[in-house]
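Summary for the lay section of the report: proteins are chains of building blocks that fold into shapes. Here we show the chain for HTH LytTR-type domain-containing protein and then a coded description of the shape we predicted for it.
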Amino acid sequence: MFTCTGAVAVSAAYCLLYNYFAGNPETLFNAAAWGVINIVPWIAAVEIARHFRTLRAVCCALTAAMVLSLAIELPIYGEYRSDLSFEIVRRLPGVAVSVAVLGILALRPRPHRAKDAAIDMRLEHFDWARAAGNYVELHRHNESPVLIRSTLSALLDRDTDGLCQIHRSYIVRRQLVTRLDRQGVLLANGKRLPVGNAFRDALNFVPSSQRS
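The coded shape description reads as follows.
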């Protein structure tokens, strides 16, 4: 919601400034309408398609965005300002940008939910964990993160000696911490994680590099 509102506001400001300096001032309504017609449908398409990540879902979302954009413009202006074929062509850059964004998102590792039978094994071998809403992402070096339905507190209760909370959203395996500094903690695998001020004073571990 905030993404759409911000995008419409930015596009409306751009439209107002561009047309003002071009000698063809626009009304605030027309500038905002331009953003709603040309920005909002594509943001919605990306948000929907990225949760499914299938070619069929992407095609359906982009087609729906095209239809929605055309459907919004007609009642606002009463008619299309150009013929329908040109209006469709004019929206192709929006399709291209949406496809590019979805492609970038597809390259990011996607946490997968562990099967119930594998959860206990995963809990014993993760390096660090991050809270993700009602779930927790378990991270292990060179492996894809695993998403389980749990809380950081529940994980800490399972292993109070081996795990340490360093941030309201992060816990780490104590033995893997090699350094604590102003930037956070550094793990043995080279991963750096943030440390919350509320937890810094309570961190009484000895870095592994200083252990005998």
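Put simply, here is one thing we learned. The chain has nine helices and nine strands.
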